[in-house]
Amino acid sequence: MDGMQAYGAGKAGGAFDPVTFLQQPQTVLRIVSWLFSIVIFGCIANEGYINSPKEVEEHCIFNRNQNACNYGVFMGSMAFLCCVAFLALDVYFPQISSVKDRKKAVLADIGVSAFWSFMWFVGFCFLANQWQMAKQEENPLREGGDAARAAITFSFFSIFTWAGQSFLAFQRYKLGADSALFSQDYTDPSQDAAGAPYTSLGGDDMESPGGGGGQANSDGAFDGTSGYQRQDY
User: Transmembrane region positions (predicted)?
Assistant: First the structure.
């Protein structure tokens, strides 16, 4: 596979270039998604729970719906870990020598990224709906309002960052499938010629349709000793 790429990376064993790695579009999107997950997790975990002056127990700022806060915290933490895992995979990816293993990694990237894009869409709709239904009298001081709006906003942005990762992985899959097909079906002409049966062009090894040697038949046609009979018309 010299001079070729399989699923967006060159031949295994090359030196790792951190500058080139950080400039790749999928790396940029992963880092941005990683930052978004930290913001969402931090906003809800730190300021997503409030209590009124008459209450001791804290409630979720999103319409007192504990599931909304739990969803945001869980999604933020899991997206953080997923981004770290895929960044590590991107670093290791050029060292994978097997085309099949590269294909599995790219397919996993497509599926997981698409899944997270959908889950952030659900999270955005859920948080936005619960924030809209929240009653002002339950939070007269409007505590945590900025954090709630930030969590909703970055949930919306995360839809597109994860969808972009899925799209880029799909592009890598298309490029990788073409190069892998070429490398598997291509046959070196020199090897193909070497594998073909050798046919001698010399007269000694060629046989005539009659089963005799070609040289013998040729001689017999001229010296008259091969049983040739003249016919008169």
Answer: 31-51, 71-93, 105-131
Within 10 angstroms of residue 4's Cβ, the number of other Cβ atoms is 12
* Per-residue pLDDT, 198: 46
Query: pTM of whole model > 0.85?
Result: no
Backbone torsion region of residue 172, taken as left when φ is above 0, otherwise alpha when ψ lies between -120 and 50, otherwise beta = alpha
Residue 113 domain flag: yes
How far apart CA 48 and CA 219 sit, in angstroms, is: 107
The angle subtended at Cα 34 by Cα 107 and Cα 21, nearest 5°, is 65
- Whole-number Å distance between alpha carbons of 22 and 28: 7
- DSSP H or E run through 50: strand 49-50
| Domain extent at residue 105 | 18-183
Distance CA(101)–CA(19), nearest Å, equals 25
70: its two tokens:
């739990």
Please check whether residue 191 lies inside any domain of the structure. no
- What is the per-residue pLDDT across 155-199, written as a single tens digit (0 to 9) for each? 999 999 999 999 999 988 888 755 555 454 434 444 444 444 544
For the stretch 133-151, pLDDT in tens is 888 777 766 778 889 999 9
Q: What's the token pair of residue 86?
A: 């895929």
What is the tally of structural domains in the chain?
1
At CA 205, angle to CA 202 and CA 209, rounded to 5? 110
Helix (H, G, I), strand (E, B) or coil at 107: helix
Question: Tokens for 231?
Answer: 């016919």
